[in-house]
Design a protein that fits this description.
Helices cover about 40% and strands about 15% of the residues. By secondary structure, the chain is an alpha/beta fold. A seven-stranded mixed sheet has the order 9-8-10-11-13-12-17, with helices on both faces. Strands 2-3-4-6-5 form a five-stranded parallel sheet, with helices on both faces. The chain has a five-stranded mixed sheet with strand order 14-16-15-18-19, sandwiched between helices. α11 links the parallel β5 and β6.
Length: about 650
């Protein structure tokens, strides 16, 4: 798209300072060129498209009015920050987005001084912004702090906790509510724009202060103020924010630079208390395929700029998410107590499959994981069978509720932990690395991990039948292995693993979907004359003590494999063997987990390479522990 636009002004924009002094017409052209650039970039890299297109004008306006990076601009979630990256000196690297060694798909402190706070999980911007504002005040500085938060992120309680704090303290803070989906205000129009510009202007604010001085001696200050604020709130939709101590301005058209820039300039001049500017934008703005899409092209693979058609890979096995969603929906046909709960991710978790069949039993609670967990607990306490499907990394946000409201009360909430393990291009913020440890630490939890999609279906059935306490199933992003799913599902025996292939010298005990790599490693080792047992643990809690002790007793080497952090399944195995004295026999045991770092984004294969969890790493670790064998042969086998 960029080739068709002559005299590109964007070529001269190397930092936000280059926007200063530009005419309004030039600012509009720069915004149009930024939009083209975002479309061209994401067509090549994939990533978040609709949200970034929706904030192009807002981003250009903020950077032209405020003095970043001295003024702190904090983006919520961060997936809408591609226009921001283009304007802040990273345009030449935009085609490395979400790739190994490239730019993050979110804001990242280590990437640029224009990213004062890293983001990727929702509803953090106002809390962080308040921290920046307080730090400014304590250090006697005068810079501004601007937080941009989407209406979806306002469904999380953390945003209101921060607003309550800022409003009570009367801290100077600017919050921009990007309303792109919800209808929380009257329609945007010329009259609304007029009022917004009026109430943000210096004369209006001066008149308010004068009126307060006049009515104060008469004892009328409070009634007069409340009447004035309620009238303004009723006319423009800001009563709730005003009651929280914020000066409300809006709603305004977030794509109208002729309105947006003067209002931002007015707000910049305000020096007292927190301000909330309400802008209304359209996801996918300026790109017809994204505008017309039901999900606004939120996250896309590579696509054709001309048609909008996204690249499709070769047809393969169903994803773990689809297997979960279909299995749950099938169970819902025979048990009307089953409910599905998700936190703003119905399509991502595939609970929408259940919801299409049973809309009355499907609950999308918004970006509110804490609420989702306790809501599920309430359902379970009154006889329902809730399945709470939340990404592993997002369930961390509701951990207190998992402990206090579910585990202590022994309520049978069933957690489906999607995106467990590494997640490729989304990087460290979305990796599900810690759930084995943080759930396995809780008394009474049943923790399961399937080795393939057939095992996942069986575990959904197993969780359905657990009625005396909480349970979890962790599974990764992406396609299964092609395993055939039985038409008649039978529940697994709780706490029992299985032997997949049997040998005598080396035992590899896998927890989760690295089982296929374990079998490849066994083949490499067998080629060197080493006899290998491969076992599928299935359960981390309760641990299959009998299986673990047998593997330890009958083999020289025992290796545990998991796609999780230290302190998880391997630690549970080590603890058990130590307690029964099995480590005194000279057993050589090795624990293979994700590395003790936050891994940056890359292709899935390379992430496993860096993590040391591919077949050649497993085989090499076994030979190292055994103290014999040819490591070079393993490398040759791996290349083959």
């Amino acid at each position: 798209m960029t080739e068709d636009r002559p005299n590109r002004l964007l070529d001269a924009i190397n930092s936000p300072a280059d926007l200063k002094g530009r005419s309004r017409a030039e600012i509009k052209q720069i915004a149009a060129e930024v939009r083209d650039e975002v479309i061209d970039v994401v067509a090549v890299t994939g990533g978040h498209l609709g949200s970034g297109l929706g904030v192009v004008e807002l981003t250009v306006a903020i950077h032209s009015v405020f003095d970043t990076p001295d003024d702190k601009l904090v983006w919520d979630v961060g997936h809408q920050c591609y226009p921001h990256k283009i304007l802040t000196g990273r345009r030449d690297r935009m085609r490395t987005l979400r790739q190994g060694g490239g730019l993050s798909g979110f804001t990242k402190r280590s990437e640029s001084e224009y990213d004062p706070f890293g983001a990727a999980h929702a509803s953090t911007s106002i809390s962080a912004g308040l921290g920046f504002a307080k730090a400014r005040d304590l250090q006697a500085r005068k810079n501004h702090v601007i937080c941009v938060i989407g209406d979806g992120s306002m469904s999380a309680g953390m945003a209101y906790e921060a607003m309550n704090n800022a409003g009570a303290d009367k801290t100077r803070l600017i919050v921009i509510l990007n309303d792109n989906d919800m209808s929380i205000a009257p329609p945007v129009g010329a009259m609304s724009h007029y009022f917004s510009r009026l109430v943000s202007s210096r004369p209006y604010r001066g008149l308010r202060r004068l009126a307060k001085k006049v009515v104060a001696p008469m004892g009328l200050e409070s009634p007069a103020r409340r009447a004035e604020e309620y009238l303004r709130g009723f006319a423009m939709g800001g009563t709730m924010f005003e009651e929280m101590g914020f000066y409300y301005v809006g709603p305004i058209d977030g794509h109208d630079l002729d309105t947006l820039i003067p209002i931002l300039e007015n707000i910049k001049a305000m020096q007292d208390g927190p301000i909330l500017l309400h802008v209304v934008t359209q996801k996918g703005k300026g790109y017809a395929p994204a505008e017309n899409s039901a999900d606004k092209y939120h996250g896309v693979s590579k696509f054709s700029v001309i048609t909008g058609e996204q690249a499709k890979g070769a047809a393969g096995p169903p994803s773990y998410q689809k297997v979960f969603g279909k299995t749950l929906a099938d169970l819902g046909e025979v048990d009307d107590r089953i409910c599905a709960i998700t936190a703003a991710m119905p399509s991502g978790t595939s609970t929408d499959i259940f919801g299409s069949r049973f809309p009355g039993r499907h609950f999308d609670v918004g970006i509110a994981e804490q609420h989702a967990v306790t809501f599920a607990a309430g359902l379970a306490a009154d006889g329902m069978k809730p399945f709470c499907a939340i990404y592993s990394t997002f369930l961390q946000r509701g951990y207190d509720q998992v402990v206090h409201d579910v585990a202590i009360q022994k309520l049978p909430v069933r957690f489906a932990l999607d995106r467990a393990g590494l997640v490729g291009a989304d990087g460290a913020t979305h990796a599900g690395s810690f759930d084995v440890g943080y759930l396995g630490a809780l008394p009474g939890f049943v923790c399961m991990a399937p080795s393939d999609e057939a095992e996942l279906a069986r575990m959904v059935k197993t969780a359905h039948e657990i009625d005396d306490g909480p349970s979890s199933i962790r599974y990764p992003r992406g396609e299964g292995t092609g395993a055939e799913i039985p038409s008649l599902l039978k529940a697994l025996e709780i706490g029992k693993g299985r032997i997949v292939c049997e040998g005598t010298t080396i035992a590899i005990l896998s927890y989760g979907t690295r089982l296929q790599e374990c079998l490849k490693a066994a083949s490499m080792l067998s080629a060197q004359g080493l006899s290998v047992t491969v076992a599928d643990a299935r359960f981390a809690r309760p641990l299959d003590a009998e299986l673990v002790e047998r593997l330890a007793k009958e083999h020289e080497v025992l290796i545990t494999i998991e796609e999780g952090s230290k302190g998880g399944f391997g630690s549970f195995v080590l603890e058990h063997l130590a307690n029964v004295g099995a480590l005194d026999s000279g057993l050589k045991i090795r624990v293979m987990t994700l590395p003790d770092v936050f891994q940056d984004q890359d292709t899935p294969f390379l992430m496993y390479e860096h993590a040391g969890l591919n077949a050649r790493h497993i085989a090499a670790r076994a030979i190292e522990a055994l103290g014999r064998g040819d490591l070079s042969a393993i490398e040759i086998a791996a290349r083959a």
